[in-house]
Design goal:
The chain is of the alpha+beta class and about 800 residues long. About 25% of the residues lie in helices and about 20% in strands. The protein contains 19 helices and 36 strands. A hairpin with an 8-residue loop joins strand 18 and strand 19. Helix 2 packs across helix 10, helix 3 packs across helix 10 and helix 11 packs parallel to helix 15. The termini are far apart. The chain binds pyridoxal-5'-phosphate. Pyridoxal-5'-phosphate binds next to helix 4. It comes from Friedmanniomyces endolithicus.
């Protein structure tokens, strides 16, 4: 083992010590800014090495038999059980510890015991509870959500009417996993007043214990049941535990189920009876084979944690200081017009710095300089590009989040039915955020992490200009006829795969659902039936579809392999091959479609090995007539409001896919100038995955281009008087997918970073415009590159 130096006591020295130590011990944190310790915390190199050595040196058998390997396991498990009780200063005379797979399983164990009580049980839970604690209510006879600490106090103080008969369980978190608030621990003692011995307390310490010692040394003041996540303390192994007061053992006697390990004798033949284990409580509750190796790993975890971080109250002081630094930093961020950037969700006045009432978590949302909410999805996209790991949304704390964001039940229902598709883009509904941004710190966090995060928020979300940096209205409102032409046309025959450039000058059919042959196929995960997307599988950018009209096939190849596959272009090859397809339900962006999957094994094998997941090719069901295709682009779209006076059902998607996507070369040039001025690499047009690229005349003198003119356009006609008319449906909202190099499949930071700084409108980062054919206008339905483009500017108001 590496030389062990004691973690110093002084706060500043402790921080530098952690900064230094984690270079060796947490190599996975080298480039990442990890701020999701309330989700889980990383494990150290020393822990993994020690565990490995232990596994290689010893033979561990299934416990409870006579072999030496079995005895070793039994001994080891019982030792670890004692060490853990010791960590929480829980006297084995009063407490037992049951191993579970996670904290949720520990909570369920308590629920299962109460469910079997005579007449069921009454359940009360605090509004700040984790989802796993809230769920217990579904098994209770009656339940109540305490919406404030005061309500709990009143309940504890009064002989509650509800307490007339039956058994009572009160559950609350020692620390909210949403904003880190710590709730009073003395409630545990108060429930045990003489009147109320039929009332018990379940303390959810899963969030609390990860950075703070929990002291059960005063058994009379401790909760009856304490649920823990060992994963959140040590990072590894993946285990939970329930610490139980032994005087509650009778509650578990009514448990009906038994499993291997929890009975002494079972009779099945002719008679049916069994004898439950009567030994220690954990023997009655640990069904089946224990996770032996995980429990053994705890020994290494306990030792390593102590060596690396010292006592738990050192960790507590360190993380409390960091949380205060984070809170103070976020509060002080202001836009140039002096408005606050962060709305921070604390209960009452700030408690940061006082670790008895506040843990190292900050929950907040951001506002722009006009006071509008910034979409959390936008924050997540930038964080993901910058390798910042945080959590957004409801963070498994339904009551706390609804209370902090002031969401009424009807609003939550409405948000639910409004649907969160393609990664929940619509996270601001009715002018309110529907989730929070949660930053949580852990033992190996440092001051530099906090500073780094504050700099991230400052760089992207603090508006430093006093005036509107760029207005959507800059071009004169008149027809900009004929300055633009179609530079190129592109289709994506297989959704999310490489583009196929339509040869220059070749006339191409345009339809209501897009350019002919665009997104005619998709690749579907064979297990889940979900259409795969490049966002999760950047390698899809390398899959090259090729439309071969001479041979009548779509060929699919992949650079670096000589293999390729081909399928007929004909939409219905069944007359030729009965078994080409199997029908199955699939989803695209969360919406059900009935896709036709190719049954060929060769196709599935080729795509599965290209992408690295089990998948195959599917064809969208055929179009029956020009405007009633059930293809993806029409399958799940709300109707767009038409401003051109038409009321046709317009196929526009929720996500960044619409019938047709148009971008302007002039805008791209401007964007690239900005990227290059910051030392970044210019973006290739292909990353925007546009169907139509518009360009201005190359004869224009420099500086006369009209970048962002498309923001002001209502529509365009392509190819002169008789040409098709297209309508602009709004800007295309961008995500980090524009950072995937479409040739190499590699991820970059640009152009999203610069887009996020220069093209953010109302919390959306826009580039390119969603476009659709106006059915009634224009006779021809063909366009080609080189065609002139006449644009119609939006009429004023
Ligand atoms: C994480 C957490 C849980 C759930 O823990 P699992 O181990 O994921 O089951 C429950 N309560 C709180 C407060 C938590 O932070």
């Amino acid at each position: 083992m590496a030389n062990i130096c004691e973690p110093p006591d002084d706060l500043e020295a402790y921080d530098s010590y952690v900064e230094q130590m984690r270079k060796d011990e947490y190599p996975m944190l080298k480039d990442a800014l990890y701020l999701d310790h309330a989700g889980t915390t990383p494990y150290s190199k020393r822990l993994m090495d020690r565990f490995h050595t232990d596994m290689m040196a010893n033979l561990f058998g299934n416990p409870h038999s006579a072999s030496p390997s079995s005895q070793r396991s039994t001994l080891e498990i019982e030792n670890v059980r004692m060490q853990l009780l010791h960590l929480f200063k829980a006297d084995p005379e009063h407490f037992d510890l049951v191993f579970t797979s996670n904290a949720t399983a520990a909570i369920k164990l308590v629920m299962e015991a109460f469910r079997e009580q005579e007449g069921g049980f009454w359940y009360g839970y605090h509004v700040d509870s984790h989802t796993s604690v809230v769920g217990v209510r579904e098994c209770a006879e009656q339940h109540r959500c305490f919406e404030s600490d005061e309500e709990v106090e009143v309940w504890l103080d009064n002989e509650s009417e509800e307490a007339a008969n039956g058994t009572f369980l009160l559950a609350y978190p020692a620390q909210s996993n949403m904003n880190g608030r710590r709730l009073p621990l003395e409630w545990c003692k108060r429930v045990r007043g003489p009147r109320q011995r039929r009332a018990y307390i379940l303390l959810d310490a899963a969030a609390h214990a990860s950075t703070t010692p929990l002291d059960l040394s005063d058994a009379a003041a401790a909760a009856d049941f304490t649920a823990l996540s060992l994963t959140k303390i040590f990072g590894f192994p993946d285990l939970g535990a329930l610490i139980v007061r032994k005087d509650t053992a009778h509650l578990f006697q009514k448990r009906r189920y038994f499993g291997g390990g929890t009975v002494d004798m079972v009779v099945c033949v002719k008679e049916q009876w069994h004898a439950k284990k009567s030994g220690p409580l954990h023997e009655q509750l640990e069904d089946g084979t224990l996770p032996i190796h995980s429990i053994v790993a705890l020994r290494s975890a306990l030792q390593t944690h102590r060596e690396l971080f010292g006592a738990l109250d050192q960790v507590s002081r360190h993380t409390a200081a960091l949380a205060k630094q984070l809170y103070t930093g976020l509060v002080s961020l202001r836009h140039a017009n002096d408005t606050h950037v962060c709305a921070i969700y604390t209960s009452g006045e700030s408690s940061y710095g006082d670790s008895t009432i506040q843990g190292p978590i900050v929950a907040f949302t951001l506002r722009d300089r006009r006071g509008n909410w910034v979409s959390n999805t936008e924050v997540e996209k930038l964080a993901s590009i910058k390798d910042v790991h945080l959590r957004t949304g409801g963070v498994c704390n339904p009551g706390g989040v609804a209370q902090m964001l002031d969401l009424a039940p009807w609003e939550m229902r409405e948000n639910f039915s409004a649907g969160h598709r393609c990664g929940g883009e619509n996270d601001i509904l009715n002018g309110k955020p529907t989730g929070v941004i949660r930053v949580s710190l852990g033992a190996m966090s440092t001051r530099s992490d906090v500073a780094h995060f504050l700099a991230f928020v400052d760089e992207f979300f603090v508006d430093k200009t006093l005036h509107s940096p760029q207005s959507m209205c800059l071009s004169p409102l008149r027809s900009l006829s004929q300055r633009f032409h179609v530079e190129s046309l592109t289709v994506f025959p297989v959704k999310s795969c490489a583009r196929w450039q339509i040869p220059h000058g070749v006339p191409w059919e345009i339809r209501g659902e897009g350019l002919a042959w665009d997104r005619e196929w998709c690749i579907v995960h064979q297990g889940t039936g979900k259409a795969l997307s490049q966002k999760q599988h950047p390698r899809m950018a390398l899959i090259r579809p090729d439309l071969d009209f001479k041979a009548g096939v779509l060929r699919i190849s992949m650079p670096g392999t000589s293999e390729q596959i081909a399928v007929p272009l004909s939409a219905d090859p069944t007359p030729f091959d009965e078994d080409a397809f199997s029908q199955r339900d699939a989803t695209v962006c969360g919406d059900p479609i009935s896709a036709r999957l190719y049954t060929s094994l060769a196709i599935a094998n080729f795509l599965s090995s290209a992408i690295g997941v089990t998948c195959t090719l599917a064809r969208f069901p055929f179009a029956s007539g020009n405007f009633s295709s059930t293809r993806h682009s029409k399958a799940h779209l709300p109707q767009a409001k038409s401003t051109l006076g038409t009321t046709t059902h317009r196929p526009i998607l929720l996500s960044n896919e619409s019938p047709i996507l148009t971008i302007s070369r002039s805008s791209l040039n401007r964007l690239n100038e900005q990227i290059k001025s910051q030392g970044g690499r210019a973006a290739h047009p292909s990353v925007f995955r546009a169907n139509i690229v518009l360009a201005e005349s190359s004869l224009l003198p420099p500086g006369h281009e009209q970048p962002w003119a498309e923001d002001e356009w209502e529509g365009m006609r392509i190819g002169g008087d008789d040409g098709p008319v297209l309508e602009f449906l709004g800007g295309c909202r961008r995500c980090q997918m524009v950072c995937i190099d479409q040739v190499s499949g590699e991820k970059n930071q640009e152009p999203f970073l610069t887009l996020a700084k220069t093209r953010r409108f109302g919390g959306r980062v826009l580039f390119g415009v969603h476009t659709a054919l106006v059915a009634e206008k224009g006779g021809r339905r063909m366009i080609r590159s080189g065609d002139v483009v006449e644009t119609v500017a939006r009429s004023n108001e």
